[in-house]
From TrEMBL:
Name of this chain's protein: Two-component system, NtrC family, C4-dicarboxylate transport response regulator DctD
Native source species: Jannaschia faecimaris
BP GO annotations: phosphorelay signal transduction system; regulation of DNA-templated transcription
Domain (Response regulatory): residue spans on this chain: 3-117
In-chain residues carrying the UniProt-annotated modification 4-aspartylphosphate: 52
């Protein structure tokens, strides 16, 4: 992966610039002319372009135009001759990201490149997210979240949906167990059949039989399965369901599988044990908090016909540091209140830990958020946080975090 595509015809200048950037841990690819660079200017180029203006044949302005034709959001930094202000002005008016006078000050060059790169990554990330939402399947559309745990959960849902046996979903209240059940149904070959949801404590023999009948050809989702009376556990739909006929059983519990073994008859427990999906609590995936919050904020504002307020970075950091005992539902309620401009009085996620623990939680959230934003690229994340690489890695180790967990799927 290239951070910088450097286009410069003068070999000694090219080597010097390349060395400056490589010393700053940037990955550089070089080209000696417009023609050599042209095929690399694509819409999905993960880096940015630094180009000399004066080159034999087609010059830097041609390159700028070509880059903008490939992708108007691709940042291009122009290198001008000393004192050549009119050229620089023309470059800016034609859409260059910045211009630098040669010979370049190394610090200024690296700093400008980093700014351009951060913008490039943000652009590509936003496109990727949009693509996943627009063209994605039910898991991508309905289960928001950019954390590695959320990605894993979506993959697991897809895999489980392809199976035929009963499924057990486990997660704390408000983590989205019902939503995940619906996603599994929608991803399965039974998607065109009904999805019927019942809560175990409200069921008796008659209402269970009726629910099974209504769910014919689709899925029956039983929430709080641990509260299903023993007598009814034997009346659940069978695992051996004919293709697209019968009823597939999906179940959820907030309880630990270790406790569940006590609550269920062994037959049912072992049936459900085969295909399980666990939803981690929100506090273990703070990277999802800003995305979910923004999603529900947009929704609340749209419903109430209100303008969407800005979420300042310190507000985001505070949201991420909370432990959210109500999980996604708690966050959603908070977003609603925020949209209405209501005070934070009924917030349930306020941390009660001491100062040291709270600071640790904030540090962890910031590390996760930065790694997520830089797609697991530790060097960029460390730079973003103004930390030497070693200090950054020490902190990751202390929090048990690994950059590779934050790289894209
Ligand atoms: N990943 C997610 N993306 C978008 N919305 C989510 C996500 N997870 C949960 N939600 C939302 O949070 C709310 C709670 O989800 P859901 O009702 O599925 O939780 P639950 O675990 O079944 O809760 P409970 O059993 O306590 O009712 C819902 O409005 C759901 O849409």
């Amino acid at each position: 992966m290239t951070d910088v595509l450097l286009v410069e015809d003068d070999l000694s200048v090219r080597d010097a610039l390349m060395q400056t950037m490589e010393l700053a841990d940037l990955t550089v690819t070089t080209a000696g002319s417009f023609l050599a660079a042209q095929p690399r200017l694509t819409r999905d180029l993960a880096g940015i372009v630094v180009t000399d203006i004066r080159m034999p044949g087609r010059d830097g302005f041609h390159l700028l135009a070509q880059a903008r034709a490939a992708d108007p959001d691709l940042p291009v930094i122009l290198l001008t001759g000393e004192g050549d202000v009119p050229t620089a002005v023309r470059g800016m008016s034609e859409g260059a990201f910045a211009f630098l006078e040669k010979p370049c000050d190394p610090e200024e060059l690296v700093e400008t490149v980093r700014r351009a790169l951060a913008l490039r990554h943000a652009t590509l990330e936003a496109r990727r997210e949009r693509g996943a939402m627009d063209g994605g399947d039910a898991a991508a559309r309905m289960l928001r979240g950019i954390s590695p745990q959320s990605r894993e959960m979506r993959d697991r849902a897809r895999a489980v949906a392809r199976g035929t046996g009963a499924v057990l979903i486990q997660g704390e209240p408000g983590t989205g167990t019902s939503k995940l059940a619906e996603v599994i149904h929608l991803l399965s070959p039974r998607a065109t059949g009904p999805f019927v949801k019942r809560s175990a404590p409200a069921l008796d023999a008659e209402s269970l039989a009726e629910a099974i009948m209504v769910a014919e050809g689709g899925s029956l989702f039983i929430d709080h399965i641990d509260a299903l009376p023993s007598a009814l556990q034997h009346r659940l739909p069978e695992d051996e369901v004919p293709e697209n006929g019968g009823v597939r059983l999906l179940a959820a519990t907030h309880r630990d599988p270790a406790v569940l073994v006590e609550a269920l008859d062994p037959d049912l427990f072992y049936r459900l044990e085969g295909l399980q999906v666990h939803i981690p609590p929100l506090r273990d995936r703070p990277g999802d908090i800003p995305v979910l919050f923004q999603h529900y904020l947009n929704l609340a504002c749209e419903q109430a016909d209100l303008p969407v307020p800005d979420v300042a970075p310190d507000v985001q950091a505070r949201l991420m540091a909370r432990d959210w005992p109500g999980n996604a539902r708690g966050l959603m309620n908070h977003a609603m209140r925020f949209a209405m401009g209501l005070p934070d009085g009924e917030m349930t996620g306020t941390p009660r830990a001491g100062l040291a623990d709270r600071m640790r939680a904030v540090e962890r959230s910031i590390l996760i958020e930065t790694l997520t934003r830089h797609r697991g690229q530790a060097t960029l994340a460390a730079q973003d946080l103004d930390l030497p690489r070693k200090t950054f890695y020490d902190k990751l180790t202390r929090h048990g975090l690994k950059p590779e967990d934050y790289r894209p799927e």
